[in-house]
Design goal:
- The protein is of the alpha/beta class.
- The protein has an eight-stranded mixed β-sheet with strand order 1-5-6-4-3-2-12-13. The protein has a five-stranded mixed β-sheet with strand order 7-8-9-11-10, covered by helices on one side.
- Strand 2, helix 3 and strand 3 form a beta-alpha-beta unit.
- Helix 1 packs antiparallel against helix 2 and helix 3 runs parallel beside helix 5.
- The longest helix is centred in the middle third of the chain and has 27 residues.
């Protein structure tokens, strides 16, 4: 079934079915490889290029996923290497109710197309897509599936890349509580989605109500700060210069006790990606802001 550490679409479908997805659901996963995107891909020549891109917490298979915004990102940004830092597909939700619109197919299609064009794509499953951790060490459609990775930046720093749920005590010790929290979070994402539907009708840009609420809640702020400290400490103990993670849906770049801490954020609330320039400089791209600036420039050009 698997030869030379390469996993075919058919073998992937069979294993995924045995892992809890229904036969019809697996067919949907297999078919996208051979299909064309519903939203045509923009020309490659119009993209910004970076040495490395990190994205995580896309949560494909949920209504909270900002698929259209991520498609726009993938059509405007390219890189030599791409890390998918976990929770790309939300297996928790898919097992409860299968939801997979055309835009979610388009995202997977674009990632596989990118790998086919020569981008080095590394997928590190998280807790919501933990079903794929059993495929660690294998390649699927040019995408390398790994439990974690070490990335060397252009300026010579070694960064540990992992999803980060292994440092979340709630996820590890109280799985039932994590699922309860997931239900509450899904409800907040639904409110956030309808809030932005209204904003679009008023010609207002995307704004994350959920991200704002989380920033104002004291316990959430304390959890995030503690999580960042624990992750940075663990990275330091492993002898690396820094760490890149996701999991908490909070993009950040900061130095913690001499360790470079990077979180690439998410594509549910913040719609952010971490990028490395060719000189090793690291930056978080806030894609809602990028779209707003682009739209403003288009309006100004039309008015000129």
């Amino acid at each position: 079934m698997i030869a030379g550490h390469l996993m075919t679409v058919e073998s992937f479908a069979k294993i995924a079915e045995n892992s809890g997805f229904g036969p019809g659901d697996v067919t949907s996963f297999a078919d996208f490889v051979h299909s064309s995107p519903s939203i045509p891909e923009k020309p490659v020549t119009s993209r910004r290029r970076y040495r490395t891109v990190w994205i995580s917490d896309v949560h494909l298979g949920t209504r909270g996923c900002n698929a259209d915004m991520l498609i726009d990102f993938l059509d405007h940004v390219d890189s030599d290497k791409m890390y998918l830092v976990g929770d790309i597909i939300d297996g928790w939700r898919l097992k409860k109710k299968f939801y997979w619109p055309a835009a979610h197919n388009d995202i997977v299609w674009r990632i596989l197309k990118r790998a086919k064009r020569g981008t080095d794509v590394v997928y590190i499953p998280g807790n919501h897509d933990e079903v794929f951790r059993q495929f660690t060490g294998l390649d699927f459609g040019g995408v390398k599936i790994r439990r974690q990775a070490i990335h060397e930046t252009a300026d010579g720093r070694r960064l540990l890349v992992l999803h980060g749920d292994e440092f979340d005590a709630i996820t590890l010790a109280h799985r039932w509580l994590a699922h309860v929290g997931d239900y509450a979070y899904t409800a907040l994402m639904t409110l956030n989605r309808w809030f932005n539907v209204i904003r679009r009708r008023l010609n207002l840009p995307y704004w994350s109500l959920s991200k704002h609420a989380k920033a104002k809640v004291k316990n959430a702020v304390e959890f995030i700060s503690h999580y960042e400290d624990v992750v940075a400490q663990a990275a330091g103990a492993r002898g690396v210069d820094g760490v890149v993670c996701g999991h908490i849906h909070t993009a950040e770049i900061r130095k913690i006790n001499g360790i470079d801490y990077y979180n690439d954020g998410d594509w549910v609330e913040g719609c952010t990606a971490l990028v490395e320039h060719y000189d090793g400089y690291m930056e978080v791209l806030h894609w809602a802001d990028e779209i707003a600036v682009r739209n403003l420039a288009d309006i100004s050009a039309l008015a000129a």
